[in-house]
Amino acid sequence: MDDTNKLIEQRRAKLENLRVLGINPFHNKFTPSENCGEAKKNYEEERAVSVAGRLMSQRVMGKTIFAHIKDSSGTIQLFIRKNDLGDELFKVFKSLDIADFVGASGALFITKTGEISIKVAEFTVLAKALRPPPEKWHGLADTETRYRQRYLDLISNDDVLKTMFQRSAILCEIRNFMNDRGFAEVETPMMQAIPGGAAARPFVTHHNAFGRDFYLRIALELPLKRLLVGGMDRVFEMGRIFRNEGISRRHNPEFTMLEAYQAYGDYETMMELCQSLICHVAEKILGTLVIEQKDTEGDVAQTIDLTPDWRRVKYKDLVREAAGADWFDVEPTERHRRAIEELKLEGEIEGNCEDFEVTNAVFEKMIEPNLIQPTFVTHLPKELVPLAKISPDDPDCVEVFECCINGQEIAPAYTEQNDPIEQRERLEQQAGGEQQKLDEDFLVAMEHGMPPAGGIGIGIDRLCIMLLGQASIRDVILFPQLRPKDAPAPSSQSADQG
Fold first, then answer.
1. Which CATH number fits the domain that encloses residue 74?
2. Is the domain of 182 the same as that of 245?
3. For 337-390, how does the pLDDT look when each residue is reduced to its tens digit (9 = 90+)?
4. Three-class DSSP labels, 174-240
5. What distance in Å separates the CA atoms of residue 195 and residue 214, rounded to the nearest whole number?
6. How do residues 37-54 score in pLDDT, each as one tens digit?
């Protein structure tokens, strides 16, 4: 029998002992008067309080026990004396294990060492922990355990707990901002008969009642645009998106996206909204527009300054800087050769790549990772964004921006295409003539008339990575997707799970 099993057996034996003593080891309810943080913040000598939390430490010193319990607000010390509780209850508390849940009531005081504590007059066993905590309980470092058993990570690592509460606050402030701007929050279906709004591989599910396959949504765009047609001038949704693609430090198969659409606006309208929203959230949650990005060792690797106004630069100008001033003047075959032979992008470009895909490989691999400070990259090739309006300044480009911060795209935004004839032609081109891939209902909706509009999508997880100074998407979502332990090793074509 290994050590863990022995410890589990010991804890189960203690569980039975509690029951023999008439003590319910899994209490139905306990109502604290305040949390641990409030008790310490509002300290008054001899003030009566009741708190509850997980037992994190216990030190027995003769007829006295010093213990710490923890809730989501922090920890507080419990001071337990045999003279106050009596022999039997003192023994019960002494027998408790680390990680058990306890409720305690008593008077506040400060110990000789200066620590705010509770002189316990009575306590309640709330929940017996039948499994011991992992090694290095205080500061769990094993990444495999941290991600697979996030609950242990939250218990052990206060910084992780803080990050997740900050993420929650970010979502709240986004909603406050959008509501203040007059946007109505809506909900659209997660299961769709036709996946649309993005070029991505969907997850397939089967609807038994209808006897046909449905798809988990890959974007929020098309249903929200239907609402513009219906007369809802400002709408947004913050919802889950599902894409059956690789896993990496920046990608998770399910993620959270904010999409917003404003009638009578354009991509510049969305540019102002994007900058204002991100600055608002940073100031509200962090109290600063200067964000420190740390490396794996916890050292500051770089600093991001969100102070407006953010840089604006055209896509073509950035490509020319990276790949040569004459990049768009040479033949497509020459661009393809240069990308492979001179720019060393062979692994990123397939032999049958379209010309715009070659250029975009240059952007994604050589340019975007270096856009650390907030940058609006504008006027993207029309082939990349079939749902956007053509730029009057350049018929090969669309009125689009990508907001790049910290070396990755945070938010794309468009002047939305509202010409139903043009929209059909461009979607048919994207679908390669396979009509069944077209969302005919969406096109019919557009034929009823859609007002000019600006639209934006903000990747919430990537936004949180940047704002909270994290290195990986796994560090800003509670339950990242992981390869099952019994699954075969990924193929060479699979994305890195790191």
1. 2.40.50.140
2. yes
3. 999 999 999 888 877 889 999 999 999 999 999 999 999 999 999 999 888 999
4. HHHHHHHCCCEECCCCCEECCCCCCCCCCCEEEECCCCEEEEECCCCHHHHHHHHHCCCCEEEEEEE
5. 9
6. 999 999 999 999 999 999
Most confident of 109-113, 477-481, 489-493: 109-113
For residues 27-42, one letter each, b for 16 or more C-beta atoms within 10 angstroms of the residue's C-beta and e for the rest, the string is: beebebeebbebbbee
Does this model's pTM top 0.85? yes
pLDDT over threshold 70, residue 435 = no
Whether the pLDDT of residue 108 is over 90: the answer is yes
Residue 129 sits in the same domain as residue 158:
no
Question: Does residue 309 have a cis bond before it (omega within 30 degrees)?
Answer: yes
Per DSSP, the residues of 226-294 read HHHHTT--EEEEEEEEE------SS--SEEEEEEEEEET--HHHHHHHHHHHHHHHHHHHTS-SEEEEE
SS3 (DSSP) at 126: strand
**Do residues 233 and 304 share a domain?**
yes
How many structural domains does the chain have? 2
Torsion of CA 399, 188, 408, 405, to 10 degrees: 80
Whether the per-residue pLDDT at 177 is higher than 80: the answer is yes
Q: Is residue 361 part of a domain?
A: no
Is residue 54 located within the same domain as residue 171?
Answer: no
Same domain membership, residue 419 and residue 294: yes
Q: What sign has the CA pseudo-torsion 379, 384, 389, 392? A: positive
- Does 182 lie in the same domain as 41? no
Do residues 19 and 55 share a domain? yes
pLDDT surpassing 70 at residue 432: no
Residue 492 pLDDT greater than 50, yes or no: no
Asked, for residue 253, whether it belongs to a domain, the answer is yes
Cα–Cα distance between 228 and 388 in angstroms, integer? 15
Q: Establish if 458 belongs to a structural domain.
A: yes
* 389 and 466 within one domain: yes
Whole-number pLDDT of residue 307 = 98
CATH, residue 388: 3.30.930.10
- Give, in order, the Cα–Cα distances in Å from 272 to each of 278, 309, 343: 10, 10, 35
Per-residue confidence (pLDDT) for residue 431, from 0 to 100: 60
Asked whether residue 220 is domain-assigned, the answer is: yes
Range of the domain at 29: 3-133
The per-residue pLDDT for 497 is 37
